[in-house]
Amino acid sequence: MTDVLLDEAAAHLERLDLQGEQDQRIQEQGRAVFYLPALADGLEAGGIRVLADELHVQGMV
Q1: 45 vs 61: CA distance, rounded Å
Q2: Is the pTM of this model over 0.70?
């Protein structure tokens, strides 16, 4: 079980590194990057408001 968890952790770190590289490439082109949270309850439970608030906090709107 430990080996499986270590493999998953390594894969997660690889994805984070790739995301960081892609974000940097986008920002170098002068593009804004915004991050939205995952919505466990979906859009039906006020998710649109959560996303809108987050975009506001990040300065998009």
Answers
A1: 22
A2: no
**Alpha-carbon span 32 to 17, nearest angstrom:** 19
Which parts of 2-42 are beta strand (E)? none
17 Cβ contact partners less than 8 Å away, ≥ 6 residues apart: none
Q: What angle do CA 48, 28, 32 make, to 5 degrees?
A: 15
Helix (H) or strand (E) holding 7: helix 2-28
Q: 3-class SS at 40?
A: coil
| Span 9-33, pLDDT tens digits | 999 999 999 999 998 999 899 988 8
